[in-house]
Every structure is written in C-alpha cells, then in structure tokens.
Amino acid sequence: MSDISKNYSGVAALTDVSVEILPGEVHAILGENGAGKSTLMNVATGTTKPDAGTITVQGTVIPALTPGLATSLGIAIVHQHPAVLPDMTVLENLQVALPSSVFAGDQGAAAAARAMLDGVDLDVHLNERVENLTVAQRHLLEIAKALAVRPALLILDEPTAPLGGAAVDLLFRRVRDVVAAGTSVVYITHRMAEVRELADRVTVLRDGRVRGTAQVAEITDHELLAMIVGRQLDSTFPPKRESTPDDAVNFRLAGFGGPGFVDFSAEAVRGEIIGIAGVVGNGQSELLRALAGLETFNGTVEIEGNALTSRDLLHRAAYMPADRHGEGLAMSLSVRENAAISALKSFKRFLFVSRRTELKTVGESLRSLSVKAPSMDAAVSSLSGGNQQKVVISRALLSDPVLLIADEPTQGVDVGARAEIYAILREASSRGIPVVIASSDAKELEGLCDQVIVMSRGQIVETLRGDDITEERIVSAAVAATTEAVSVVSGRATAPRASRFRRFIQGDYAPTALVGAVIVILGAYILTQNPAYLSTFNVTNLLTAATALGFIAMGQNIALLTGGIDLSVGPLAGFLVVVASFFINDGKPIGMVILGLVLMIVVAAVVGLVNGALIRFGKFTPIAATLTLYIALGGFALLLRPEQGGYISQGFQGFVNTTFGPIPLFFIVIVLLTAGMEFALRKRRWGWRLRAVGSNEESARRIGIGINRTVILGYVATALFVVLGAVMLTGQYGIGDPSQGSAYTLTSITAVVLGGTSLLGGRGTFVGTLLGSLLLQQVLNATVFLGLGTVFQYFFQGILILAAAILYTVGRFRRRKRALEIEGELG
Predict the structure, then answer these.
(1) Which of 73, 75, 122, 624 is deepest in the core (most CB within 10 A)?
(2) Helix (H, G, I), strand (E, B) or coil at 660
(3) Residue 370 region, left (φ>0) first, then alpha (ψ -120 to 50), else beta?
(4) What was the pLDDT predicted at 488?
(5) CA–CA dist 367, 532 (Å, integer)
C-alpha cells in the first residue's frame, strides 16, 4: 500500500501511509487506539475505499479493491470485532462467508465445517446460533473462516484480546504453520510480547502516519514505546498502596457463591485493588456479574460494614463489562448520553434533568479522564477503543458507586490508554471505593493489584499478596490447579437430546411449531361448538382467504428478513387488482389477458425497485420509503378507478377458485412455493445473504455481501409475491375496487410476526408465515362459528399481534441472558 490517505468529515484517519508486506513474513502493526491501524486494514481488504494512494498485490495495481475481490486475491482478515452473524447458525456463518468450493467433497458441508472448527479447537455444535457463543468462541469462528480459504495474506486484528492462554498458544501455532506454508501475516496488536514472539518486522502508526518500520530483532521495547506514544513512559503502573497498622477492612465476601462459582471468601482494606485471575471460563465473569447484582448469589457481601443484597448491588455498584460494544455502551447514543445515563438522578432539578448541570458534570468527568472526542455530542461509536473504555469508566464514576467492578478493563486498549486507565482505577480505590478487576493478562494483575485471587473451575485455588504477586506465580497457580468443576446452575445441558431440544426452542422453528399447535387446538375447540366448521364450503373459504393473505405475507416476510418493512404491499395489491380490471374481462382475447398479467408483474417489479432504491440510495428509512409508495399507489388506484368497475372474466375467476375437493388449487401452489422458499432460505446462498443483511449489515458487508443488491432484489421479490396475492383477490372479488388490499398491510405484518419472523431482521421462516396467515384467518372465521360480533374480529387480531410481540420480546431477552450465562460456563 503506497501513500494511502483517508479522511472522515475532514478529520484525517490516514495520511500518506505506505506499508510493504513481504512474502512469508509476519509483519506487526503497532499503535495506540485511533492511530489508524484498523482503518488501514479495512483499506487492505476493500471494506474502506481510500481517498488517495495505490494498492499493489503481487505486482498488479488494484484500482478499486472490494471485499469480494480481496477474497479472490487471497486476502483474508480476522476483525477485532468479529464479522459474524448472530441470528444464523455456526454452519450458516461459514457457508455465507466462504466460497462453495471450500465445502466441496464427498463428506459434505457439515464435515468440512467441522474440520475447520477442529483446526482452531472450537468445540461448538454446527447448528448453534452464533449469538449464543462467547466472545472468545466468536473470535475462533472468525479465525476458522480466515484459515479455511488458505489465504496468501492473512490479517489478524487484535486476535488474542478475548482468548485464554491455551487458545492463544493454539493460534500462535496455526500462525506459524500458515507462514511456513507461504502465507504472509499482518498482525495488529497492543501486546509487544506477542510481537517479539511472532513477528519478523514491525511498523508503528501514530495519528494516522507511519512513524517507523524495523526488524523486530533490531529494536528495543523502549524504542517501540517511544514511537507508539510519541513520548517516554516512566511507568505503566501507578504505585501500589503501602500497608499500615491502622488499615481497616472496608470490603468483605464470605461464602459467596452463584452460577459458576462457590464458596468465595475475600477481604480488602481501603485503597486495595483485588485482582481475579485464572484461565478464561473458570467462573471469573460470573463472579463479577454477581457482584454487580446481575446474578443471584448466596453468602454475604459487606462494604463498610453494611451487608448488601443483589438488588442493592444492582443499583449501587458500577460494572464495566468485558464486551464493551455489546454491554458496555449504547453505540447509537452520544458520548455525553453514554457517560450520563447512570447518573441522571443526580442531575435532576425538580421533575426534570438540568441540562446545564449534566453538561458541566459530564464535561468535567470526561476532561479528567482525558477522553479524546470531537465533542460530547459525537457518537460514541466514532471514538477509538481506549476512549470508549474511558467513557465506560466515566459513567461508572459519575454514578457514585459503592463498588467498582471491571471485567478485562484494558482489553483492546493501547499502551498509553492502559496507563491512564490504571491510574484512574488506582485513584478510585484510594478514595475508598473497593475495586475488583478480572483480567486474562497476568502481567497486568501483577503490576496493578494489591492482592490477586486465582480461580479454577469456580473455586479459589490461591490468594497472592505483596511480593508473591508475580506473573509466574499467577500462571502457575491457574494451570496447576486440580479442582473439580462446580455445579453450574444455569449451565449447558450435556445430554444430546436436551441439547437438541434447547437448540430447537431457541431456533426459528419453535414459533412455527407453536402456531401449528394453536391452529389444531383452536380448530378442535370450534368443532366441538359447531360441527359445520369442517364443512367443505367453510374449509374452502378459509384456505382461499389464507392463501391470498399468505402470498402477500410471504412477500412481507422477505422485507422483514432484511431488517426492513414494506407498508406498500396492501395498496400495491389493490392497485394491481385495478390494473387487472382493465384487461382480464369477458370477451377480451387471451393476448389481452396475458398482457394484463405481464403488466401487473412489471408494475410490481418497478414498485419493488423504487422501494429498494429509496432505502439504499435515497437513504430513506424502510417505513418512510414504503409509506411514500403506500400513499402514491392508493392515489393511482383512485385515478384509474374512482369507483368500483371492470368486472373480471368468469373464466379467470373459475380458474383462480379451482378446488380439489375442499382444497383450493392455489393453496396447493402456496404450500409448494413455501417449501421451495424455505429450502432456498436455509440451503442456498440467496437465503443466507438475505438473513445475513438483516442479522448484522456491517458484518455482512465485511464478508463481501452486496448489501444494496440484496436489499433491492429483496423488495422486488416482496412485490412479486404481492402479484400472486392480487391474482387471488381478483378471482375472489371479481371487480376492480381501488379500496381492495389496503387492510392487507397490517394483516400481513401480523401474520409474519405470528409466524416467528423477527421485527429486527435476520431470522424467520416461510412456513411460519403461511401458518400465521392461516391462524389469522382461522380466528376471523371462528368469530362467525362461535356467534361473536364483528368487533371481536378486531379484538382477536389485536390480541394475536400483541401476543406475538410479547413472545418475541421475551424470547430475545432470554436469548440474551443465555448468551451472558454461556460466557462463564465451565468446560
């Protein structure tokens, strides 16, 4: 890469950066957070287009690098924040990100995927949803994806940040293996010990510029630090507290136990920092979450002699989670809002928050922590990792906590910011706030903590104090422990059948099964009240109505899977019926009928293109874009048919309403189409890409999915399904009516949500959508057979959509809770 420059809103992220990667070398890139390392690697992989500069791969200048082209050139990257799709399974994440040739062979895709995971020692089920994986497991999945393509250039961006010692050793072995096979590796890290162990050459970035490149063997750590921070660092760690005879205990745990840990006892005097050590996944995170009041516990927690309950800790302790993006920050909010959110009560004047007080207090806090941000109202997502972590600390301190808990406080943070964070934690401790931190970096615990408690399998194996706190003693205690695993209250079931059942309950088909069961139970109840319920006439009418709604709902399902919504489906159906009323009439030649059908398809495709273009290129929200078409189509329908008119051909109506016994022909068609769409959604790249965009657009972009193309074609497909629904309505009503179809917008959304499709995108089924349509029509039908009034139709529709929304919200909450529990499951 030569003379690469990149600016964001006038702020230079990279300026004239030139880096050469030689064949078969490990080239380390060092620099503080915000130095431009990740931006440079995004340029190298085609995710970010530079403003200036050239990229040359094996002697060929690449004028416009894209993620897909980078992959074809043999460039693979393991992102600092894994480009995984949480709503999809492990196997689907591999299939959507990797070329189909990787899975070719006699053993099949599952065997190939299993071999990839085994290569990085990742023992998870292929059908496990990725949102249930730990942060470390997601990183290993990302590494497995990168290694699977046997890249010519492998970029590793902070790959060891969330990994334990054994996983780091395995990663280093794999890196050495791929380098021996001829792969070049770019290794981005904040840990100079890793540079010494792996790298041949090192390049240092600071403030978006190259500050030097050297052979690792020819430069000292002291020289590297000076280049990284632009100044000499006297000491990374602040001085520890000196003990005195008058020390009084201000923090005590006795018999403390909870999910993943038992019988934890410890005490500390004012000014001491307690460190929690051990191999990752041995109960440390569970311990910290219990101290924060996020998990139930037994035993006692005393601060300044006062016993605190879980509820007390939840409201009075400050917790800094390891997953900064997932739990620590609201990424869509500003720096000020993130810092202030836990302390809003202290800014209150009468019934309102005083903005002046908030700005003054938050500003002072951010300045005291040296947070570098364009302004307090800048999006927190625009900050570097170190500054984001400082915002988390600012929020914690502003809440005036009785206890400060930090899980991996410097994960992914540069050496300069680390020193500042250490000083902040030490200063908080000196003010009398008990500080408990967990870290996988033994050197960090050695330099910062006054006592270190080493855990293994949820139990204390050693407590180190004073001069005994050394990296060697900490690591030795952790790896030499012989304790047995404790019982994990919320742990993963190990029985294969239970595990499969859990995956089913958390999967896309659980809501589908529930809707199917409700249909059967409701049908059985109605039949006991009115034997005519299963008459041929009623079954035909019910299935016909469900088919019309089903076609439109299946289109709506596609839009929702992308993370959008289509409010125009109802008016589009009505407009297409009006169009049909001019062509499909008695006495019209067959050519005219065909022309009418073709025109309906063309109109629908144009509407889908306009919707998609407004969303992707016009930057409209899906609601705004499709609401625009909702209004326009309704107006066009009234222009063409100010009132009802244009009777539909009797022959066409007869064809649409053809039945085989009580089963309509088009119901058979929709069942077959549903099966085909479900197969495509689960087993074909089109379906994976559709769900990937809805699951996490940024991750989908990083793995090379064409977001614009996928979304626009998705809205076109949505509109084409509406054509089928309009054909059904044409056959049922037999006349051009501009008001037809409007109600189908809301009912289609209701049917889709009932079927289990997420309103947030990324997950859902076509089978569930068809059953949701059937249930909705069945409920309306039931009001007639049970002798209820029309008002009950609306009442039951409201109950169904409310129930669907509640069930989905509860499901998301439970899945999130489960994901947090898995963080600490003991192996």
Answers:
(1) 75
(2) strand
(3) left
(4) 35
(5) 76
CA angle, 701 as apex, 682 and 81 as ends, to 5°?
100
Mean pLDDT over 776-788 rounds to 84
DSSP class per residue in 352-395? EE-HHHHHHHHHHHHHHTT---S-TTSBGGGS-HHHHHHHHHHH
Q: Are 197 and 187 in contact (CB under 8 A)?
A: no
The SS3 call for residue 801 is: helix
% of the chain at pLDDT higher than 70:
91
The Cα–Cα gap between 532 and 528 comes to: 10
Helices 685-695 + 707-733 axis angle, to 10: 110
pLDDT band for 476, please (50, 70, 90 cuts).
confident
pLDDT at site 29? 92
Q: Give which of 761, 764, 721, 695 is closest to 608, Cα–Cα.
A: 721
Question: 193 versus 89: which is more confidently predicted?
Answer: 89
pLDDT tier, 376 (very low <50, low <70, confident <90, very high otherwise): confident
Distances (CA, A) of 614 to 57, 628, 760, 761: 37, 10, 20, 19
User: Residue 487 — pLDDT band, cuts 50, 70, 90?
Assistant: very low
The matching CATH number, chosen from 3.60.21, 1.10.3470, 1.10.287, 3.40.50, for 523-817 is 1.10.3470
Percent over 90 (pLDDT), the chain = 43
Answer whether 255's CB lies under 8 Å from 299's CB.
yes
Give 714-770 pLDDT, tens digit per residue.
Answer: 999 999 999 999 999 999 889 998 888 888 998 899 899 889 898 888 999 999 999
In angstroms, the CA 215 to CA 213 distance is 7
Where is average pLDDT lowest: 117-126, 413-422, 804-813?
804-813
Per-domain boundaries in the chain: 2-229, 249-479, 523-817
Residues 117 and 104: their CA atoms lie apart, in Å, by 16
SS (HEC) of 204-237:
EEECCEEEEEEEHHHCCHHHHHHHHHCCCCCCCC
The helix (run of H) or strand (run of E) holding residue 5 is strand 2-8
326: closest CA among 613, 127, 505, 81?
81
pLDDT value at residue 721:
97
More confident residue, 579 or 260: 579
At 566, is the secondary structure helix, strand, or coil? coil
Please state at what angle helix 135-148 crosses helix 165-180, rounded to 10 degrees.
Answer: 10
Domains 2-229 and 249-479 share a fold: yes
CATH superfamily of 249-479: P-loop containing nucleotide triphosphate hydrolases (3.40.50.300)
Contact 403, 291 (CB under 8 A): yes
Decide if 2 contacts 54 (C-beta within 8 A). Answer: yes
Q: Which residue has the tokens 């009777």?
A: 647
CA dihedral 640, 644, 645, 650 (to 10 degrees): 130
The token duo for 247 is 């020390």
CA within 13 Å, CB half, 806: 6
Amino acid at 249: V
Contact 610, 702 (CB under 8 A): no
Its CATH class, for the domain covering 2-229, is: alpha beta
Is 70 exceeded by the pLDDT of residue 269?
Answer: yes
Q: How confident is the model at residue 234 (pLDDT cuts 50, 70, 90)?
A: very low
Q: How many CB atoms lie within 10 A of CB 806?
A: 10
C-alpha distances out from residue 560 to 104, 131, 702, 756, 805, Å = 32, 19, 21, 11, 14
Spell 319-333 as b/e; 16+ CB within 10 A means b. Answer: bbbbbbebbbbeeeb
pLDDT at 134: 78
Q: How high is the pLDDT of residue 396? A: 86
